Amino acid sequence: MWPEPSPRATFAERRAALDRLLPGPKVLLSGLPRPRNFRNNPYPFRAESHFLYLIGESLVGAALLVDGDRTALYVEEPPPGDALWHGPRPSSRELGEELGLPVHRLSDLAAGEGVATLPPQDEESAVLLSELLDRDVTPASGDEVEGRDAALADAMIALRLRHDAAAVTQLRYAARVAELAHAAGRAAVRPGRREAEIRAEMEREIVAAGCGLPYTPIVTIRGEVLHAVGHSGKLRPGDLLLADVGAETPEGFASDVTRTWPVAGRFTSVQRDVYEVVLAASDAALAAVRPGARFLEVHREAGRALLRGLIDLGLFRGDVEDLLQRGAAALFFPHGVGHLLGLDVHDLEDLGDRAGYAPGRPRLGGPGDRHLRLDRDLEPGMCVTIEPGFYRIPAVLEDPEALGDLEGALDRRCLRSLESVRGIRIEDDVLVTNDGSEVLTRAIPRAVADVERAG
After folding, report:
1. For residue 313, how far is the Cα from the chain centroid?
2. Which helix (H) or strand (E) holds 242?
C-alpha cells in the first residue's frame, strides 16, 4: 500500500481554473523551513497548502507565478556543497519536465504590477515574499487581507471548498491509512501500557503507508482535555482511551479520526450508556450531512441528540429545545461538531472565517456555537468532519459564568455517577455527494459491540 501521485494534468487544470477566476499575476510561496532550536536542525518541511494545491510537491523556498502563458515555477539554486548533505537534486529542466511547467531561478521572478498573493504563516517566509514582490507582506489571517490579495483568497476558497476527483482519491487514501492506524491502536490497548506505546503503534502504520501526520496525535486517558498532547499516562482497567489520530498524504491531504476505547476491553455499564449517547449524536449529525444542509444545523442536530440522551440518563431536566437554546449542550460538548477537511486538517483556516463562514454569516456568540469553525451550506465535493463528544471538564462545570442559569437543570448526583467517564469523542470524515454523503471512515469500528470485538 503506497500513495499514488495525482496526475500532473490535475495541477495544470487547477492553475488554469485559478486564472479563470482571477486573471492577472498571482504568486504563491511554498515557504521556508522553520528552525527547531538552531538553523541546521529544522522542523520537517511542509509547503504552504495553496502552493501544494497547485503544484503537488513540497519544494523549499519556491514561488509559483500563475498568470496565463507566463505561469512558471521559480526555485532557488542549491547552495555549494548541498549535494553532500542532501544528494543530487533535479536540474531546472528536469524539474520542469516532471512538473509540466517552466522552471526558472527565484532571483529572476518579475511578477509585475498588481500581483496578488497570500501571506505565509511565518515571519521568515513573509520576509522572503516581501523581497520578491517589493512590498510589505506580513503573516496574517485571510480575514485581514485586502484588495487583490482578498480576491485571491476568495478564488482559492472557491476552488478548494469542493474537492476534485484527484483530491477525493487522496482523501480516501488518507482515510484508509487512518483505518489501519486505528486498528493497530485498538489492538495494542491493554492495562499497564503507556499512551505513548499506543501512539507508536498507530504512527507505525501511517509511516509504513507513505504518509505523515497532519497534526500532533491525541492519545490520552484524559479525554476531557480537548487538545491533550502529552503521552506519558499509564493505562489502567476502567480507563477510556481517546485516540484522535489521522494521516497526511505526500500531497498534503488529511484524515482526522477519533475513537474512544475501553482499556479493559469492555465498557462498564456507565461508560456504555454515555458512549451510546455520543454515538447517537454522531449518527444524527451524519444523517444531516447532505447537499443544501446548513452546517450550523448539523451542529445543532448533534446537540439535540446529545441532550435527549443526557435527559434520558437523568443528567438534565427539561425540554430539549429550551436546553439547547440556553447552551446546555455546550456544558459537555463545548466545541463545534466539525470543520472542513482537505489539504489541511482544518482546511482553509489560514484564510480565517472568510473560508469557514458564508458571506453574511458572522460567527455566533452563544455557548458551543461560538467555537463552530464552519457555517456554510454544504455542497457536493465538500469534505467535513463530524465529531461530537461528551467531556466532564471541571473548569466548565465549576464555573458559575459557564453554568449561567443551568444549575437548576443539572443533576449533580447523576454527574457524580459518571466519574468513570472523563471524555468520549467519535469523529468521522464525511464527503458530501450529489444525493447525500459518504462516510470515508465508516470501516473504523464505532458501535459498542464492534469496538469491544475489535479489542
Report:
1. 32
2. strand 240-244
Which strands, in side-by-side order, build the sheet including 72-75? Answer: 103-105, 72-75, 63-66, 26-29, 116-117
Question: Other C-beta atoms within 10 Å of 419: how many?
Answer: 9
**Number of neighbouring beta carbons within 10 Å of residue 325:** 12
Least confident of 82-91, 167-176, 274-283, 403-412: 82-91
Per-residue model confidence as pLDDT tens digits over 164-183: 999 999 999 999 999 999 99
Residue 449 and residue 31: Cα distance in Å, rounded? Answer: 47
Distance CA 16, CA 146 (A): 23
What structural domains and CATH numbers belong to the chain? 8-160 (3.40.350.10), 165-454 (3.90.230.10)
Q: How many residues comprise the chain?
A: 455
Residue 261 and residue 221 in contact, taking contact as beta carbons nearer than 8 Å: no
Element (H or E) spanning 85, and its range? helix 82-86
* C-alpha span between 95 and 87 (Å, rounded): 15
29 within 8 A of 48, measured Cβ to Cβ: yes
Rounded Cα distance, 302 and 287, in Å: 10
* DSSP per residue, 398-454: T-HHHHTT-GGGB-HHHHHHTTT--EEE-BEEEEEETTEEEETTTTS--SHHHHHHH
pLDDT category at 128 given cuts 50, 70, 90 is: very high
pLDDT in tens, 292-339: 999 999 999 999 999 999 999 999 999 999 999 999 999 999 999 999
